[in-house]
Amino acid sequence: MAKLNGGIGRRKMLKGAGIAAGAVLGSTVGAPTIWAQNNKNIVLRQFGTGVSAINEIAEKAKKDLGFTIQMTALDSDACVQRAVTQPNSYDIADIEYWMIKKIWPAKVLQPFDVKKLTYFDKIVPIFTTGKLKPDSVIAQGTAPSKVGFVDKPDSTAFASGQTGWFTMVPTIYNADTLGIRPDLVGREISQWKDILDPKFKGKTSILNIPSIGIMDAAMICESAGVMKYGDKGNMTKAEIDKTIAFLIETKKSGQFRAFWKTFDESVNLMTSGEVVIQSMWSPAVAAVRSKGVACKYQPLKEGYRSWGDGLAIAKHLSGSQLSAAYDYINWYLSGWCGGFLNRQGYYSAVLDTAKANMSEDEWGFWMEGKPAKGDIKSPQGAVMEKAGAVRDGGSFYERMGAVSCWNAVMDEDRYMVQKWNSFIAA
What we know:
By secondary structure, this protein is an alpha/beta fold. The chain is 34% helix and 18% strand. The longest helix is centred in the middle third of the chain and has 16 residues.
C-alpha cells in the first residue's frame, strides 16, 4: 500500500480495486497454531473506503492470527449501494455511521452481541452513551450513539439508548475542520465563514460527498449568519433550499476552485497552491506537510464536523465464519491497530489498548496536545512533525470535545442529495 505521506495516496491506490490482503485473524493475539490451522481456509470478504483498507494492518494480523481478509476499497456512495444491493458479496462492511442509517433498514446486516466483544466496556463513550464526558452535549447530525444499537437482532429501527445489540463496532474517527495554507492565506483564520472571504476568490474548495459536504456548508452558513438551523443535521426542505441557493450563488460568483471527492484531490489542490483554504481530512494535511509544504488543520470558533467508521457484519454470516468475524474485530481493538491509526492523525475506538502500543512521546503529541520531544513519524517511518511541534487543535478531549455536528443522513436525505447535485452541476 502506498504511504499517505510523500507518495501516492491510499485512496488513489485503492479506489475501485479489490485488494486481497492475507490477514491472519483469530480468537486472541498469539492464538495456538492448531487454531490457525483449523481456520486457515476461512475467507472474510470486507469492503470499505480507502481510509481504512490498510495493507499494513492485514500484514500485522497475518503474523498474529490465522485466516484471510479480502479487502475491496470503494467510494462512499458505492459502499452504500453494495451493502444494500449485493448482500451476498461481502461478509464485513467497513462503513461510516451515516451509512448505517441508510443500510440497516434493508435487513442485510446483523448486530453484534456485546457480550462477545472483549473490549466493549472500553470503547470511547461517544459510541455508546453519545457523550465524551458525562456533561457533554450530543452533537447534531448522525451521531454514532443514535444509530449504534437495536432492541433485538431482527429490529429494523434503531434503539433510543444502549442495549445488548450493537449495530457496528467503531474503529476509526476524527474531528474535521478546514485546512489552510498559512503561507498563502495572509491573515488569521478563526471561523468557518472565513472560506467566503473575497480575498480567497477562486482558491477555495469543499468536498463533494453530499452527506459530508452539506454539513460543511451548514457550518459555513451558520458562521456567516446566512441562516440558523433548527437542527443542521436534520434540515427541513426549506433549510435545504436556502443552503443550496446560497452555495449556488457563491459558486457562480467564482469563490470555489473545485469540489473534491478523494484524499488525493484534496492533497494536490493544497500542495499546488491552487487552493489555500478548504475542507480537509487530518492525514491529508499531514500528507501536504510531508511534501515540505506548509499546511495547518485550523481549529475554528464554531467547532468541528466529525465522522466515525466501524465494522458491521453481514446477515448471512454464521458458524465458524461468524466466530472468525468476532475474533477479527476483537483483535482490531486489541491495540496494535489503534496505535497505527493514531499515528496517522485518526483516533482509535479503545484508547487504553492503543496507548500501550505507542511511545510516551507519540501519545503525548497525538492524544494529549503536548509538544513533541523528538521527531514524530508516520506508521511507515516518514517524519511528519519535528521535535517541538504541537498537534493542530490540541488534545483528544479538546478536539473531540468541540464537535459541533456529525456527518448526517437527514429525514429529507433524498431531497437533499438531489439539491446538492444541482449545486454541483450549476
